[in-house]
Amino acid sequence: MLAVFDKSVAKSPDALNAPDHSLVVSALKNGFLANHFASVHPGSVIVNLGSSGIMAYSLEKQNPLLPRLFAVVDDIFCMFQGHIENFALLKQQYGLNKAANEGIIVIEAYRTLRDRGPYPPDQVVRDIQGKFAFILYDSSSKATFIATDADGSVPFIWGTDAEGHLVLADDVETVKKGCGKSFAPFPKGCFFTSSGGLRSFEHPLNVLKPVPRVDSSGQVCGATFSVDVETKKESTGMKKVGSAANWSANY
């Protein structure tokens, strides 16, 4: 799976930028990275999000234990890879029918949050038990919701291109094609939102500290993020907002 989001939709962390920009390109210009993905994965599906970016997925070369899924509900797009262990419980919790899959569960969890849900986003992600990574885009509010499980069980890479757009994929070579050395594994146990940036759902009150990542040749290659146990941020409780607004614009 692949997603490239315009920096106006999802601003990539500054720490992902590597000093060496020689291999970095514009991932969105002329459909560069989408075309590359399609050439590597014949039969793949590319979803054009207009000025917000692109999403792409392919069903070939899947790990049967970590399958890929794609779901769309009311202009909310979700790519999911992996599996949810408490699938039946969450399906019942969100009142979903038997045909619902993991992608639908993530969309419904997001919609519950967006529409004045009583729980903070970190708790909602923490309640999803299993091995997973997902990328969600809400076209109505131009908001993203991205996460991976606490163990980082699914290969999931993110990076930043020459124009500061956010690139995410389950294949490191795809990310490197658009980001050069400005990439890193997506931090395990974390989630990212358009307005709130990167946060830990295991330690939501602690600040995440970027740590420069060095490759085998000794060059700085993006950054990893670790929980700063000494530094805490303000409470991340859900703000109550008017019916015309949603949590994603206030978190």
Description:
By secondary structure, the protein is of the alpha+beta class. Helix content is 17%, strand content 33%. The chain is built from 5 helices and 14 strands. The chain has helices at 32-40, 87-93, 102-114, 121-126, 172-179; strands spanning 2-5, 45-48, 53-57, 68-73, 76-84, 130-138, 143-148, 157-160, 166-169, 183-185, 190-193, 197-200, 206-214, 220-232. The strands form 3 sheets. It has a 6-stranded antiparallel β-sheet, covered by helices on one side. The protein has a 6-stranded antiparallel β-sheet with strand order 4-5-6-7-11-12, with helices on one face. β2 and β3 (53-57) form a beta hairpin. The longest helix is centred in the middle third of the chain and has 13 residues, at 102-114. The chain is globular.
Q: Count the helices. How many?
A: 5
The share of residues in extended strands comes to 25-35%
- Assign the structural class, choosing from mainly alpha, mainly beta, alpha/beta, alpha+beta, or little secondary structure: alpha+beta
User: What Rg is obtained from the alpha carbons, in whole angstroms?
Assistant: 17 Å
Q: Helicity range of the residues?
A: 10-25%
How confident overall, as mean pLDDT? 87
| β-strand number | 14
Largest sheet, strands/sense/barrel: 6 strands, antiparallel
Strand neighbour order, sheet with most strands: 2-3-1-9-8-10
Write the element-wise H/E pattern from the N-terminal end onward: EHEEEEHHHEEEEHEEEEE
Shape: globular
Residue stretches low in confidence (pLDDT < 50, at least 5 long) are 236-245
